[in-house]
Specification:
221 residues, 17% helix, seven-stranded mixed β-sheet, globular, five-stranded antiparallel β-sheet, alpha+beta
């Protein structure tokens, strides 16, 4: 069995072929450019979140080597399905890297029905769609984000336009919030202990560095 299939995504699948750089240096090993679209249900209620992640060349090439069973230097439909199913199972433990909150309270999300994996321009691209467990109305402040709590993967929204809302009501405002890493560290210094650096997956501090889409609908409710 390959090293990719033996591991979980958050802790190791996205570090396949790579090694931990040491407890004093917590940083990503894998990078993905992402887009997130919030789909509304004909009004101010969230229907689903649509995710697209495009992985860096190094990780993509590693996945190609791991899953190219017939060694033809490409991934056929069966091999891509194997990739998608492996990532799908591995991400479940980490709620598919999703961060959703309403009025400061966590919002539970259903697991997606499936993931779709493709290779485009020699890069692995993953698509999936998820829905809230309970109806989620855009009332007050609702935040959406994507981050890896283990710090192995950097999910990067390179442009603010990569975090979007389909049919945002005129009474709501959209803002992309990008935390300043130095400020985030300073504000959470008391939590950044040796235990954190030895096992960053054992806590949820990764969320303080996550880029978030904030929807403010103070007039809704």
């Amino acid at each position: 069995m390959s090293s990719l299939k033996r591991s979980t995504l958050g802790a190791a699948i996205l570090a396949v072929g790579l090694t931990w750089a040491g407890p004093a240096w917590v940083h990503p090993h894998v990078f993905a450019e992402a887009s997130l679209e919030v789909k509304l249900d004909g009004g101010a209620t969230v229907h689903s979140l649509r995710h697209v992640w495009r992985f860096d060349d190094l990780f993509s090439s590693t996945v190609l080597v791991e899953f190219d069973k017939n060694q033809d230097l490409k991934l056929d439909d069966t091999e891509l399905l194997d990739v998608a199913n492996t990532i799908f199972a591995s991400l479940a433990e980490f709620d598919y890297f999703q961060l959703v909150s309403s009025q400061g309270k966590d919002v539970a999300m259903k697991a997606p029905d499936k993931l779709i994996a493709t290779f485009e321009n020699n890069q692995l691209v993953v698509f999936f769609e998820s829905q809230p467990v309970e109806p989620l109305k855009l009332a007050g402040k609702v935040d959406f984000g994507v981050y890896d709590p283990t710090f192995y993967t950097a999910i990067d929204f390179t442009e603010d336009s990569n975090m979007m809302v389909d049919g945002l009501p005129a009474t709501c405002k959209r803002q992309v919030i990008r935390p300043d890493p130095d400020e985030a560290i300073a504000q959470n210094q008391q939590n950044l202990t040796d235990e954190f650096f030895n096992d960053p997956s054992g806590n949820d501090l990764g969320s303080i560095f996550a880029t978030k889409l904030e929807i403010d609908c103070q007039g809704q409710g």
